Amino acid sequence: MTTNMFPPALVFILGALLIPFLRGKAKAIYMLALPVVVFLILLKLPVGNTWVVDFWGYELILGRMDKLSLIFAYIFTIMAFLGILFALHVKDNLQHVSALFYVGSTLGVVMAGDFLSLYLFWEIMAVSSTFLIIASRTKESREAGFRYILVHLIGGLFLLAGIVLYVQKTGTIAFDYIGLTGIESYLIFIGIALNAAAIPLHAWLPDAYPNGTPTSTVFLSAFTTKSAVYLLIRTFPGADILIVIGGLMVSLPIFYAVLENDIRRVLSYSLMNQVGFMLVGIGIGSELALNGAVAHAFCHIIYKALLFMAAGSVLQMTGKIKCTELGGLYKTMPLTCIFCMVGAASISAFPFFSGFVSKSMIISASAHEKIFLIWLVLQFASTGVVDHAGIKVPFFTFFGHDSGIRAKEPPLNMLAAMGIAAFLCVGLGVYYQPLYNLLPFPVHYTPYTGAHVVGQLQLLLFGALAFTLLILSGYYVMEVRSKNLDADWTYRLFGQFAYKILDRGLNSLNRVSESVLMKFVKSVAVSFQNTAANFALFVAVNFWLLIGYRDKRLEIKKRRLYNDILQGTLPIGIGAAVAISFILLIFIIT
Amino acid sequence: MKKELTIFDSPKNVKRLRMGFYVALVLLLIAESFVDMHGEFSVEHFYGFYAVYGFISYVFLIFAAKVLRKIIMRKEDYYDH
């Protein structure tokens, strides 16, 4: 079935291509209009498969709509609006374009009914999010972005291998429930689990996310992991191993979050902890548990984005993001402080905030299934959330010792984005019925019972009492500048090790070949690079002249493009461009 | 320059806040006797289970993290060479 509407993924991806041609108010309005248009399309979209495209005898399904994909499509579109609003003041078009590619490809993943289009969007997602990481244009962000794309390309290969075997076995590229049965299902599982930052495939997340720009990390926090959660709900509900992985994810990262000094890294570990709750829900696999996982993903996207927005505002206005360098900011940034505390209350699942109505579903589901150990772990983890996200982040940033920093509130668009997100956090906590109606299964669950509220408040507030006593007595963990080892240690060290081995082992060979071969190769490589750079410059400069860039602006643009090419960031972009034009081609031909 | 907020600079206000917090804790413990703590597990029927578990969890978390720090902490420039 086809309609005269456009697939949401392509609205964002093709829509992004226009951004560099717009200026000022027109650009702002245009960018904000994109998610609105997509939302209207989603409202009108019928249940079932839309945009089914024949591709060499295979059926690509670009619009699978059921209750599960619909709720994820809604929240990703809402999040796109919030993220765009928050980043509206940013001048760097690279960030806007890659953010919209990222959003579009995530919607493509959520609405894909077949493995081929899923894989295509999956890779665009990986590439476009890498641009959001390196957009800070620092050495750290470039290196972290490089590790990030390597890890995700490897994960993508697992997924691809699984898909190939799966298609060979079943004879169809359409997919729905898979279940852990054969080698192909395990390969697919690994590919998806990596994007969900499942332990032990998680290290890319706390490594890369804290290196984004103040605004790009907000996007990053929402899409990759939750689209993986969506896929796990669809393909592997009830897989017992997810309970184990989820159990590790809710508990281990909170220790790191206690120790971390960089606030956005604290929030990254906290993000893993929250995804852990969802994975436990998927692993349990009952209707209540799956509903809980979906609801929690929905609420979590908003409050986690809100927390990253608050952290981003602080970073942008003060230039600092470490607990040891911040403190006392409530004095001049009271609004940001309040928004941050709403996010903190929501993630801690305080009654009347959004986390409470979703997280309690998962915990109740674990109790209904009588899994005592995991129930204890989830309750323990809930207290852990109070520590790092509920108390540590707001306390050390806005209160604590006075750092002497007197930064102003962030620009209006950032405040507005945080305000809307905070409003939604409270709104969902109080008026949760609309959310429950959207969940994939019918809901027979009441979050607000006396026992739930009193139990939860005791758990949270007596945890907070422990904090109060520990910090008054000086036993609380000192904030220190440090680097805490995580699983990325393995591949980082292996990389250094391999480099040294090659360096030593090949040195003798080098001496011989250097005089002839190396010089030749080097000169060829340099000339290739230069040709590419000069060609790109030639095209770009003429184009820039055409649209009216002159003098200093042109000079800056030229230098930036030249550097990007020489540092090798562009080939990835070309790959993405090829991928995009490929979909476009398919769409136009059929 | 806009006026600064200084409400938490005065120790009196901080103390008031803390007192309010302690009162809330006591009220919460009392509130438990008015609700039916229907639980799937028997531990939930112990009076004040959540309060005790929350407190112990928190203290365990902090002290375990301190031990963990001894193992995993490195200098900030550990990976730069």
C-alpha geometry of chain B:
flat
What amount of the residues of chain B lies in strands?
A: under 5%
Q: Which pair of protein chains has the largest interface, and what are the residue counts?
A: A-B, 53 and 51 residues
Helix content of chain A: over 70%
Uncertain ranges of chain B: none
- Sketch the topology of chain A as an H/E string, one letter per element: HHEEHHHHHHHHHHHHHHHHEHHHH
How large is the radius of gyration of chain B? 21 Å
Q: Domains counted in the coordinates of chain A: how many? A: 3
Please, what is the average pLDDT of chain A? 88
What is the count of β-strands of chain A?
Answer: 3
Query: What would the average pLDDT of chain B be, to the nearest integer?
Result: 86
Question: What can you see in these coordinates?
Answer:
- The complex is a heterodimer of chains A (590) and B (81).
- Chain A has 22 helices and 3 strands.
- Chain A has 3 domains: 221 residues, no CATH class; 227 residues, no CATH class; 60 residues, no CATH class.
- Helix content of chain A is 73%, strand content 3%.
- Chain A has a two-stranded antiparallel sheet with strand order 1-2.
- By secondary structure, chain A is mostly helical.
- Chain B starts with 10 loop residues before the first helix and ends in a 7-residue tail after the last strand.
- Chain B has 81 residues and is an all-alpha fold.
- Chain B has 2 domains: 30 residues; 36 residues.
- Chain B has 2 helices and 1 strand.
- At the A-B interface, helix 10, helix 15, helix 18 and strand 3 of A face helix 1, helix 2 and strand 1 of B.
- Strand 3 of chain A pairs antiparallel with strand 1 of chain B, so a sheet runs across the interface.
